[in-house]
Sequence to fold (164 residues):
Amino acid sequence: MLHTMAALLQNGGVKKETSPKEYWAAIAEEVGEPVRAYALARLIDVDGPGQTGMFAPRPEWGLVFITDSALYVERGSSQGWLQRLVTNRPAQQAPERSTIPIDSMTKVIIPPPKTGLRRLLAAPETTVEIHHEGTPRALRLVLDQRGANDKLLIGILSGLKPGG
Fold:
């Protein structure tokens, strides 16, 4: 609380907003290479068929971005008021960033686009499944195909040649 108050006083009582361009420039500097694409994704954490339906853990939201050498998944710290009511995770917890080197990916599964009547009736979301060395569990990202950022990320992921 004191830290926040001190920051407000230093900035003249107004919290300085960071533009998206400034934010991604800072991220590129931090990871050491340009960010090719980014999207907000739902992160599904399911071990197997026994954890589906009402027994499935709730999905988290995360910021996903990709560079030439790695995929980064940043699980956010900001929760909405409804999330604070239904979870015991502290709201001010620092974001957790996972790094998956592209050369450690063993398989990337992106379902083919639906056609015909299925396309009209289907949800606009695509679940991308990324298998990688170091964990038996796949990373599952739910992306919205209608968004330009999501489309770009899906396109880059579909062009990867895992394990090769």
